Amino acid sequence: MYRVAIVGTGGIANAHAEALQKASDRAKVVAAIDVDRDRAEAFAKQWSIPTAATALADVEGYDLVHICTPPGSHVELAEQALAAGATVVVEKPIATSLAAVDRLLAVEAESQGSVAVVSQHRFGSGAERLRRIVVEETFGRPLIATCHTEWYRDAAYFAVPWRGSFEIEGGGPTMGHGIHQMDLLLAMLGDWQEVTALAARTSRDTGTEDVSMAMIRFASGALSSVVNSVVSPREVSHLRFDFEQATVELDHLYGYTDDDFTVTAAPGFEDQVAAAWAEGPQGRPSSHHAQVVAVLDALDNKTVPPVSLREARNTLELVAAIYRSAFTARPVFHGDITPEDPFAHRMDGPGAPWATQN
């Protein structure tokens, strides 16, 4: 029975509490922690958690820490948990900069625990089937892909003090909203090689972008377009993969089931494609619970829980490359953002273009 502390008791913490409650035969939440004591106590009461506290340092006796605070505090809290010998599950994005992730990687390497980053869309049965198809080239090579996170966030959403800030949130929809779809894109297509991007603040009163668009070349030769938006009234999360023998599409919003996938075979490949798609896991939606189960399985087996900090860094490097390309009007290649680069320390580098216009 793993003892769990949840740090940060805002909205997303409820998804973590629910996921852990569904795994109550394997994990028990023993503490709820929030800088706002009233909020911590209310959350503890809601989820029948025995202890409420205002700091992780005030709590002992945990094996696993779930961090659900604003992004700017993730690394420091993860370091505290690792120092206590715990394994850490951190909400996305893992950090506000590549430099902060590299600092955490160094701490992780010297600790007994490890860091897993929430990427729940990797753990639905549909994504697992698709990943197997990609690896085995069952539908042939992937050629092109589209990855769209087109959501809508109004002025009230940005009224929360830490939102719309490169300092605390790390960025706009490229960082905080589209990162899940882009993570799933990378999980399918592997290493990215080159990015050319645009970003703009079109209508929201925010310090970050509210729209970005990117073109990505993968090491395999596949090409992808990416759109991240918080100004789109008809919301959708969309992924499409065009293989040599089939197209696979996924349309959902904040989570998917098997029914959200559409598979279209190229002429002459109908039977082969249908048979391949019918194989493998079925019936498991993407969810925090699916990833929590995978984390607990890894702990049982004494292996690194998914998604590893190193994998999450690759996704964050793509995010940083989109910002760097958009703000410098130049393509960015994988590995271009070195430790000395301003974009390694802030997603806006020396500052967003509109920051100097205010």
What spatial form do the alpha-carbon principal axes imply?
globular
Major β-sheet profile? 8 strands, mixed
Radius of gyration: 20 Å
Q: Helix count, per DSSP? A: 11
CATH topology of the largest domain: Dihydrodipicolinate Reductase, domain 2
Structural class: alpha/beta
Strand order of the largest sheet: 13-12-11-7-10-9-8-14
Oligomer: single chain
The number of domains is: 2
Poorly predicted segments: none
Helix content: 25-40%
N→C terminal distance: 54 Å
**For this structure, what is the CATH homologous superfamily of the largest domain?**
Dihydrodipicolinate Reductase, domain 2
Instruction: List the helices and strands in order.
Output: EHEHEEHEHEHEHHHEEEEEEHHHE
Describe, in plain words, how this protein is organized in 3D.
With 358 residues, the chain is of the alpha/beta class. It folds into 2 domains: 2-119 and 290-306, NAD(P)-binding Rossmann-like Domain (Rossmann fold, 3-Layer(aba) Sandwich); 121-286, 2-Layer Sandwich (Dihydrodipicolinate Reductase, domain 2). The protein is 33% helix and 25% strand. It contains 11 helices and 14 strands. It has helices at residues 11-22, 37-46, 74-83, 98-109, 125-136, 155-158, 173-176, 179-189, 270-278, 288-301, 309-328, and strands spanning 2-7, 27-33, 51-53, 64-67, 87-90, 115-117, 142-152, 192-200, 211-218, 223-229, 231-243, 246-252, 261-265, 332-333. It has an 8-stranded mixed beta sheet. A 6-stranded parallel beta sheet has the order 3-2-1-4-5-6, sandwiched between helices. Helix 4 runs antiparallel to helix 11 (309-328) and helix 8 (179-189) packs across helix 11. The longest helix is centred in the last third of the chain and has 20 residues, at 309-328.
